[in-house]
Design brief:
By secondary structure, the chain is mainly alpha-helical. It has one domain (35-207). The protein has 9 helices and no strands. Helix 4 packs parallel to helix 9 (185-207). The radius of gyration is 20 Å and the shape is elongated.
């Protein structure tokens, strides 16, 4: 092994350790901001709850995509993404986003987008179709309302909510904190109710689309 190869290997190991440390620090920060007094169950990424189907047939991703396109699944996945985005196209005019001031409406937009991503991860079993739905959802919002699209891509809120996903009380605490109403029971309840309402709306819509 040459000196250059050894140096590159050491640098790679150091970078990996740094990434793990930063991820741990981000998690601890999020929990410090939003967690209730009791322990929080941490759920990595958007959990599929065992529903995610794995393609193990030997076919390539391109072949599988072509198959889904030919049988109409890609068309339906794009339509589903557009339908999931529809409430966001009206922005504050939609009844789904009542209850907060203009100052904090972006947090409700993000909560809706977060609930959609979770519902898609759990309700659309095929990876290609789930990715297509998410892409269609984001693209539709971006094309029609750039302000709402920016609110959906709040990386701080995303990190915080992922860590609290298994606990609605924690989600409510996070929502109140991010809306500058830390500890306010009304805002905590609003956050909890909003997530549950958005998730049920998205899951119900997903259930109406039957992929082949």
């Amino acid at each position: 092994m040459t000196a250059w190869t050894l140096t590159a290997l050491l640098l790679a190991l150091l970078m990996a350790q740094l990434c793990l440390w930063r991820r741990g620090e981000a998690g601890r920060l999020a929990l410090a901001l939003c967690a209730p007094d009791d322990d929080v169950k941490i759920a990595p990424d958007y959990p599929s709850a065992g529903l995610r189907a794995r393609t193990d047939t030997g076919e390539s991703v391109a072949q599988e995509y072509t198959r889904h396109k030919l049988n109409g699944n890609i068309f339906m996945a794009n339509r589903l993404g557009e339908e999931l985005a529809r409430p966001l196209l009206c922005g504050a005019g939609s009844s789904l986003f009542d209850g907060v001031s203009e100052e904090n409406i972006g947090q409700l937009y993000f909560m809706y987008g977060f609930a959609v991503r979770v519902a898609v991860a759990q309700g659309v079993e095929n990876t290609i179709l789930a990715d297509t739905v998410r892409h269609s959802f984001s693209e539709t919002v971006e094309d029609h309302n750039e302000h709402v699209y920016d609110a959906l891509n709040d990386s701080v809120s995303d990190t915080v909510y992922r860590l609290c996903l298994a606990d609605n009380q924690c989600l409510g605490n996070c929502f109140a904190k991010l809306c500058n109403h830390d500890g306010d029971s009304r805002w905590i309840e609003l956050g909890m109710e909003a997530y549950e309402r958005y998730y049920q709306f998205a899951a119900g819509l997903i259930g109406k689309f039957e992929f082949k």
